[in-house]
Design a protein that fits this description.
The complex is a heterodimer. Helices cover 0% and strands 55% of the residues of chain A. Chain A is mainly β. In chain A, strands 2, 4, 5, 9, 10 and 11 form a 6-stranded mixed beta sheet that branches. In chain A, strands 1-3-8-7-6 form a 5-stranded antiparallel beta sheet, with no helix packed on it. Chain A is globular, with a radius of gyration of 14 Å. Chain B is globular and about 35 Å long. By secondary structure, chain B is mostly beta strands. Chain B has no helices and 10 strands. Classes of the chains: A mainly beta, B mainly beta. Chains A and B meet through β4, β5, β9 and β10 of A and β4, β5 and β9 of B.
Chain lengths: 111, 120
């Protein structure tokens, strides 16, 4: 089983739709969780950190489920500009401090 | 403020030649990472530097790959005797810590724009 798994998609949704992605992780010692966004032929950029209690930033909501070892990202009222690849990142405390990146979920928002 | 910079932005080389890629991290960032991303693929970890500790080289794919970092500043990734399968975007990232302390924001990685390497 891969350390961090994501559905590669693509998720093809109309503008205004609500879309959700999940990301599962295998290391129960994982402590830090992030969602990054990567536009085509660009570098990844932090979208939001994921806190234990869940957090929201405008149209974006991130949730963490430690029992089932997954994090989620919900995007409401999708915009054309949300089209990108969303990368799940997981980091464990102790041992290796190297973040593990998922392969990403592609989102395409169409008019 | 200045972000992570990388040079060159593009590099075309012939098979068998050596290449050197440079990364300038954000000032004060103690952690520096190199990744490789092949077209349409995810990020592949290569090497990690944290302060003056010995680097974690566990991701380097072969002994043709090496990297150096001077203190907490510039890093160079060297690929010797390049092969066509080395063609990829090489991304550098820095962060203010390794996760030993602080919350998630302490661990945010800031990426450079990458070097696109093409081996003919």
């Amino acid at each position: 089983r891969k350390e961090v798994e994501q559905d590669p998609g693509p998720f093809n949704v109309p503008e205004g739709a609500t879309v959700a992605f999940n990301c599962t992780y295998s290391n129960s010692a994982s402590q830090s969780f992030f969602w990054y966004r990567q536009d085509c032929r660009k570098e990844p950029k932090l979208l939001m950190s994921v806190y234990s209690s869940g957090n929201e930033d405008g149209r974006f909501t991130a949730q963490l489920n430690r029992a089932s070892q997954y994090i989620s990202l919900l995007i409401r009222d999708s915009k054309l500009s949300d089209s990108a690849t969303y990368l799940c990142v997981v980091k464990a405390v102790g041992g290796s401090y190297i973040p593990t990146f998922g392969r990403g979920t592609s989102l395409i928002v169409h008019p | 403020g200045a972000g992570v910079s990388q040079s060159p932005s593009n590099k075309v080389t012939e098979k068998g030649k050596d290449v050197e890629l440079r990364c300038d991290p954000i000032s004060g960032h103690t952690a520096l990472y190199w990744y490789r991303q092949r077209l349409g693929q995810g990020l592949e970890f290569l090497i990690y530097f944290q302060g003056n500790s010995a680097p974690d080289k566990s991701g380097l794919p072969s002994d043709r790959f090496s990297a150096e970092r001077t203190g907490e500043s510039v890093s160079t990734l060297t690929i010797q005797r390049t092969q066509q399968e080395d063609s990829a975007v090489y991304l550098c990232a820095s962060s203010s810590g390794s996760g030993l302390a602080g919350g998630p924001a302490y661990n945010e990685q800031f990426f450079g724009p990458g070097t696109r390497l093409t081996v003919l």
